[in-house]
Amino acid sequence: MTSSGAPTVDPARVAVVWDESLLGYKLSESHPLHPVRLDLTMRLARSLGVLDGIDLLAPTMAPDEELRRIHVASYLDAVRVAPERGEDMAHQLGTSDNPIFEGMHEASALATGASIAAAREIAEGRADRAINIAGGLHHAMADHAWGFCVYNDCAVAISWLLDHGYERICYLDTDVHHGDGVQAAFYDDDRVLTISMHQHPRTLWPGTGFASELGSGRASGTAVNLALPPGTRDQGWLRAFSAVVPSLLGAFRPQILVTQCGVDTHHEDPLAELSLTVDGHRAIYSRLRELAAEYSDGKWLALGGGGYGLFRAVPRSWTHLLATVLDRDVEPHRPIPADWTSYATEKTRRPLPTSMTEEAPTDFERWGGFTEVEVDPFLLETRRAVFPLHGLDPADTRD
After folding, report:
1. Which positions are annotated as active-site residues?
2. What pLDDT, in 10s, does the model give residues 349-366?
């Protein structure tokens, strides 16, 4: 058992997909989605011993036939030639969000290949859990780039799993932005339950992810959106999560849990306005681990995502994620190793963290019916919209 009491897994049954070539997904030197966050995460995890004895699985580029699971062929062609041809507004290439960069197709296909590799390790029985922190590019659409994302590795990996033995998949997105690209890919597919928790679309790009977006046709109820108000803190977020997600997993009975673990919900993130902490993120990952054990026979594919606190938030939060997936939980008050601080200091003039915690409380009042807690109107809106479609009572006071 881990220190949290969660069921443990043999580290040999966990696949960590990583190679420094994944740092090539670099939209520009000044772009918010800078690969230094991945570099610093892996270095911190190594410094803390989280990756000791772990053989990292190097990815290969996803071939076109795999990318075409989600993306149309004309878009793949456009991405491939964009570095020579330049701006292409029809495919949203060359915008400030999605600048064109040399090797864009190759870097994007590699990030997608990493998520397929992680999915394959689980599907072929070599692992129960797998993680690709370079994945989670959840906004990319079938025919255009969107929100820093060129190819949608999340959706491609889910499609791959559907063709390799899985009939019920839950995709759970904890990024501050709506998981719009994955929702769009499976909006009419009742084999995939997409759950996105995000800042309310009236206050943040991309402006989608309302509780009324439920899926279409026979898939009605398999798109779930829980939008939270700006300023939501750890305790409110965790209360909302506990009031919605476990009940839906119990009703849907997924065979695998695929999670997009964006950390742009952090209170210091420059692009959004939720107020979670590194401690809150750690609590989320612990809960995801428990839910995978309870509802999907321990099968858990974890992907990265957004996060623009490159030096203070992302490395700590995703080190906690790696540790949680590996059942090597890092004690929150563990000091940041000096070698990591020395390396990171060369990259930024910003003050750097000194420990793996922000001393934030993560205990919360569990759902027991509507109260004056700020998140309650929002979680109740989602429960009322989607619970009846799963045979659940939105007024049930059990979470």
Report:
1. 139
2. 899 999 999 999 999 999
